[in-house]
Amino acid sequence: MKIWGRENSTNVRKVLWCAEEVGLDYEHIPAGGAFGIVGSPEYRALNPNGLVPCLEDDGLVLWESNAIVRYLARRYGEPPFAPADPRQWAAADKWMDWTSLSFAVPFRDLFWNLVRCSAEDRDSAAMERGGEQCAQLMGMADAALEEHPWFSGEDFGIGDIPLGCIAYAWFSMPIDRPGLSRLEGWYVRLSDRPAYQKAVMTPLT
Q: Boundaries of each GST N-terminal domain copy (predicted)?
């Protein structure tokens, strides 16, 4: 198994974290950003988007981070991480897509300007707007944790992975955050997981 991608990418972290959780033996190939590779003809033959991550597993080539996480969970995971009940899977799946479709855009405005732009190049208005929107969305996530301790339900699972990768940056960046006790408790539980520490808690760059 090979996984291409730079470890400071949120989407790559999803895949590396999932692979660690299910105990896979894989080769991680840094790619994208300063590592290059993604523009080469060989890589484009695998992923014509020229993006990371990309997975190669026993003849299967797969891109799109959430799709890779679902594949690894279905093929190599066991309940409760990979639910056998379609209803439980759908409930976790919902949070995967919510993170990628609803949360990722305002978070990018915040993260990109705060972490990846120099102070003189920052778009302060976009950063402020992104921070406000993220705070509202994190409030929704906090409310959801009133019913269950994890976004996957009663146990940790695939539904926690996308938001968990973003949560590391959210709780690490020097920003004002609303006090959300359930979300904070969830993040503490994630931070105790060895797979999370290895795959996600790497420098923010």
A: 1-80
DSSP E strands: which ranges in the chain? Answer: 2-4, 27-29, 54-57, 60-63
Alpha-carbon distance of 52 to 63, in angstroms, equals 7
Of 28, 136, 14, nearest in space to 69 by CA: 14
Same domain, 145 and 108: yes
Q: Which residues form the domain of 111?
A: 86-196
55 strand-pairing partners: 3, 62
* pTM (global) more than 0.70: yes
CATH number, domain with residue 43: 3.40.30.10
Q: Identify whether residues 10 and 65 lie together within a single domain.
A: yes
Please name which of 56, 60, 58, 59 lies closest in space to residue 15, comparing C-alpha atoms. Answer: 56
**Tens of pLDDT, residues 23-43:** 999 999 999 999 999 999 999
Residues 6+ apart with CB under 8 A from 83: 89, 92, 152, 153, 157
Distance CA 175, CA 161 (A): 22
Q: What pLDDT, in 10s, does the model give residues 70-99? A: 999 999 999 999 999 999 999 999 999 999
